[in-house]
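<purpose> Linking amino acid order to shape
<body> The protein record starts here
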Amino acid sequence: MDKPADKQERAARPKGGVSRLGFLKGSGAVVAGAGLAGVLSGCAPLGSDTNGTVSSETELSTPQSMEERYPEIPAPPTAPPPTDLLHVFTPEEAALVDALTAGIFPGDAADPGAHEAGVVIYIDNMLAYNHGDTEATYRKPPFAQTYITALPPKETTVNGYKVIWVPDREIGRYGYQSQLTPLEAYRIGLKNTNGYALGKFGRPFVQLTAAQKDKILEDLANGVATNFSEPTAQQFFQMLRTHTIEGMFSDPLYGGNRNLVGWKLVGYPGAQRAYTEPDIKDQNLYRRRKPQSLADMMPFNPGENVNPSVILPVDGSRKV
């Protein structure tokens, strides 16, 4: 149930909130946190006009809460995720992941976000497969370490492990490198996040007010949250943010994007057999198609006219 403070914060927001698509376009990013000053990339700074020019010192001298700065963004919900769908998360871990992703991509029943899309179920399903290893992963040293100076450092070990030095711009070629599995990284990151919340506000993350949750997420994103090592606070936030995006916009077969809310948000029709020539010429036509998941697609053989607008060719031709 909502706490009185949360209900007051919700009451101060317009009913229904801003459209999620409008929020995404306004933020200049695919997904952004609720009031995360260090993450929102397209919003003009406080005290500026629409061109980003500071208008007056008076406006800057008056501090505003995140709710006052972004009143149109829905508050994260407090209802816990369904525990009967979990594979690896404990109910407590799932509630924390749900709250964190809902803070990164907020929403409500009228304007769905990460909670309504079941992003936590997507993450749980992903981590249940091979401990979350979905890409090439290096478990043994030497590990790649980045440098930004003209020459690499001379040290051959870092924290007791052999390393190879890689220019910062090339680290993307080396894939995920850690002795921790993604599942282990999640569990450590969740424990450290709760520890930071307790130290800063005296309560676990899920019990904080919306403004306090925003502050914790902002500190994670900016790397200033303490008591993190591996993963670092920024690494954990980026992992959460990446998986929030994936859970919002991947096929519902993977557990997220419940009721196709992510695809409806961006006008994506989902899994379609093919597109007609008029569809390709006029994108507004394919956007009018009803979104569907892979599970909604009826199996059929080449040449079988199941969908009146799409016929698969036989042997590379267009004959049926």
Summary: The radius of gyration is 23 Å.
